[in-house]
Specification:
Number of helices: 14
Number of domains: 3
Shape: globular
CATH architecture of the largest domain: 3-Layer(bba) Sandwich
CATH class of the largest domain: Alpha Beta
Strand content: 15-25%
CATH superfamily of the largest domain: FAD/NAD(P)-binding domain
Strand order of the largest sheet: 7-6-15-16-17-14-18
Largest sheet: 7 strands, mixed
CATH topology of the largest domain: FAD/NAD(P)-binding domain
Number of strands: 19
Bound molecules: flavin-adenine dinucleotide
Distance between the termini: 14 Å
Length: 441
Amino acid sequence: MPLGKVDERTRMSSPPVVILGAGLTGMSAGYHLQHGYEIHERLPYPGGLAVTIEEKGYRFDRTGHLLHLNDPSIRRWIESMLGDELIKAERRSRVFSHGVYTRYPYQANTFGLPPEVAYECLVGFIKTRESGASTERPNDFEQYCLKYFGAGFSSHFMIPYNRKLWGVHPREITAEWCERFVPRPELEDVIAGAVGLKRAELGYNAEFLYPARGIGMLASALKERLRVPIRFRSAPKAVDWRRRKLIFEDREQSYEVLISTVPLNTLIAILEHPPDPVRRAGLLLRCNPLYYLDVALDVSCGVDSHWVYVPEERYPFYRVGCYTNFSDKMAPPGKSSLYIELASREPVSESRLMPGIAEGLMEMKIIKRPDDIAFARTRRINHAYVLFDHNCYKALEQLRPFLEDNRIISSGRYGGWNYSSMEDALIAGRNAAGKAMELQR
Ligand SMILES: Cc1cc2nc3c(=O)[nH]c(=O)nc-3n(C[C@H](O)[C@H](O)[C@H](O)COP(=O)(O)OP(=O)(O)OC[C@H]3O[C@@H](n4cnc5c(N)ncnc54)[C@H](O)[C@@H]3O)c2cc1C
């Protein structure tokens, strides 16, 4: 319906913009709109994935959430909200494999690995460069690894690590997503890393900011700055996109523009009678859950790394991070809090899992004995990693114009169906607010 024809009573009783989700994207959209909107959040608290919980003086985020900021205006905004609470750190991340720690990224740091492993990696890397690096784009992530890193790096790190991270074999994933996130070293970097020369850190996250009492501080600060209160425990059961109405259990709510940060496949599933191609495209979208552990230690963490990548299949986890190495306020004095991201995409039995976890942590010298673990909790993130499989982009091409034509701005990491950061979420929210204002003109 053109804007001019919006029923006057509806216009007066409903704000023009409705936002679904009070994660960073949704709250950033609200912040930038200032007024004329309503924001609904399914859960009883704000922040989405950017939250911190506390138990017995230990603090846990939903695994490591570090701020890697490139946009000066976002940096200024975050600094203005968190001030002295922001800790600035230089990344200390390591890879643990073959029983030793090496620096990250693996592909530029073979020094310290068993000589035969380092040899395989270097020879593979040189051979792939010598083979004349065809200009053809790799079809999938496995081909991407073989083409840019060679067989050794691929088999010792890239393939096993990414299989654990994504929960599917890298050949199921397209190569497009990784250009930004997987650092491609130059020959000089690989050689320097093989002989142990320390060079500048590679990759997008060489330095980060972190709020002293966990990432949830950012969400709380943002919530405090919203002019419109969030409606918690509020989620529509359907979206009547033709009449521009949200259907809640007990009422209907009109909108002129809908900003949705709900996972895109969920949004499509609650559209009332969508066109068939749209419904089918929604069903093609895949996103993996993630199981991870909050682990409280009675002792300090045995290593000083911020986080450690663990590619080998014999360990049931692929990354271990230590919150207290980000900030000592994340646990009581002399103790520490960890996150352990699990390779399994199926529900896990804690009692069966913990002996293997404790053993792995001892091998990694993070703890000395199983009793160092005070408690552990299993957590699940329902939507964690959007799978950029071979259907994904086709489906998005179908969905995006449909939503746009119907004044639905689907935004954020899961609304926009992408692999993106908290900074991206804040920017996406700002952009969504701008677009919503434009649509109302
Ligand atoms: C394991 C992991 C580690 C990460 N580490 C980092 C990191 O180190 N640094 C970094 O910058 N980024 C990191 N990220 C990415 C970061 O978490 C996201 O980019 C960002 O939090 C996304 O915010 P969002 O608002 O788009 O989505 P979300 O945080 O998912 O927020 C969406 C909100 O919508 C709500 N919602 C869902 N359905 C409904 C409904 N039907 N109605 C109303 N509300 C609904 C949800 O409850 C949620 O609050 C990580 C992500 C993961 C999964």
